[in-house]
């Protein structure tokens, strides 16, 4: 069944469907949104924003009007947040992150707060909305109530040890994506997070990019469709929150989570890309979810680790065993 799933996934990407993509920042003269005063932590212009050299025009070609954007750039905007232990690029249209990134080492996972600080504890953290975003574009706490979805971390709180503040930042909803509760967020995905942490025992540095991936599903007539359930209560909100619901059968999934890993040992780099369905997963080998990185890039519109030629890197799973482990066994391996 999962072999069929990955075949559907790659075929679906070929039709060019995927709603997450890089967005250009508006020019500096655009007026800030009136619904909030605090701006995003960091604003990073995208490459598309760079002006291209003027094209040579024939005598018959109409000239571009110089005042097209007199009244501002309509967006979309990609909000970028750089925090103590993670970086997040946020997609206002889907109310999900484009991606969240982290860097792990064995030392960082064993650290217990700074000098004189108490050890951080996720029990002291609470989920909070991303208040630096306009209200109409935020993921809201109420969106999850009664949905059957967990508020699922992209960068896990368990990966952060440096301070309570850094742990608290992982609970901001910009780092959260709706995840099927039982059988995924509280099961296979949690074990997968343990696997990622266990890599620090064998590798010097582990770089991780995680994010949602929205896929089409193939209907019986061969056409591809994206179907989703809107969370929240759209009739009572100006703009509904567009969370995409994964189908329960893995072969009909429309919503996945991606995780791209680059692990470094003695200067040698290894990489692997996983695509996991946001659905109940039971006894399935982790290697079944390995997916070519270029397929993920086509589906997501992202360039993953753009300063590396990730495609040419040796396989991480050829260097180490890629398998999910129960919590106690994973914790013992890090001890």
From TrEMBL:
PROSITE patterns: NUCLEASE_NON_SPEC. Keywords: Endonuclease, Hydrolase, Magnesium, Metal-binding, Nuclease, Signal. The keyword Magnesium applies. Residues 1-24 form the signal peptide. Its cofactor is Mg(2+). Residues 82-311 form the DNA/RNA non-specific endonuclease/pyrophosphatase/phosphodiesterase domain. Residues 23-68 are annotated as: Disordered. The keyword Thylakoid does not apply. InterPro entries: DNA/RNA_endonuclease_AS, DNA/RNA_non-sp_Endonuclease_sf, Endo_G_ENPP1-like_dom, ENPP1-3/EXOG-like_nuc-like, His-Me_finger_sf, Non-specific_endonuclease. It comes from the Eukaryota. It is an enzyme of class 3 (hydrolase). PANTHER family: ENDONUCLEASE G, MITOCHONDRIAL (PTHR13966:SF5), ENDONUCLEASE RELATED (PTHR13966). This is Endonuclease. It comes from Polyrhizophydium stewartii. The gene is NUC1.
């Amino acid at each position: 069944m999962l072999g069929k799933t990955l075949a559907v996934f790659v075929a679906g990407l070929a039709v060019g469907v995927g709603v997450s993509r890089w967005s250009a920042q508006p020019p500096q003269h655009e007026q800030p949104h009136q619904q909030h005063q605090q701006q995003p932590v960091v604003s990073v212009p995208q490459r598309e924003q760079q002006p291209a050299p003027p094209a040579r025009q024939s005598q018959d070609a109409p000239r571009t009007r110089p005042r097209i954007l007199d009244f501002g750039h309509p967006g979309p905007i990609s909000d970028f947040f750089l925090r103590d232990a993670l970086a997040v690029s946020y997609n206002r249209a889907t109310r999900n992150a484009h991606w969240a990134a982290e860097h792990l080492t064995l030392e960082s996972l064993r650290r217990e707060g700074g000098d004189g600080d108490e050890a951080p504890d996720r029990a002291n953290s609470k989920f909070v909305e991303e208040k630096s975003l306009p209200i109409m574009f935020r993921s809201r706490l109420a969106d999850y109530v009664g949905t059957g979805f967990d508020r699922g971390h992209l960068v896990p709180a368990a990966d952060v040890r440096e301070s309570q503040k850094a742990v608290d930042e992982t609970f901001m909803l910009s780092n959260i994506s709706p995840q099927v509760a039982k059988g995924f967020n509280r099961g296979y995905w949690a074990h997968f997070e343990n696997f990622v942490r266990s890599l620090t025992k064998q590798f010097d540095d582990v770089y991780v990019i995680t994010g949602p991936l929205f896929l089409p599903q193939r209907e019986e007539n061969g056409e591809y469709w994206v179907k989703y359930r809107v969370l929240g209560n759209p009739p009572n909100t100006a703009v509904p929150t567009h969370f995409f619901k994964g189908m329960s059968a893995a072969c009909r999934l429309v919503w996945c989570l991606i995780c791209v890993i680059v692990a470094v040992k003695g200067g040698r780099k290894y990489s692997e890309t996983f695509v996991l369905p946001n659905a109940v997963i039971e006894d399935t080998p982790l290697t079944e979810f390995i997916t070519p990185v270029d397929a993920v890039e086509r589906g997501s519109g992202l360039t993953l680790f753009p300063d590396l030629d990730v495609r040419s890197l040796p396989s991480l799973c050829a260097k180490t065993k890629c398998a999910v482990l129960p919590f106690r066994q994973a914790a013992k391996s890090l001890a």
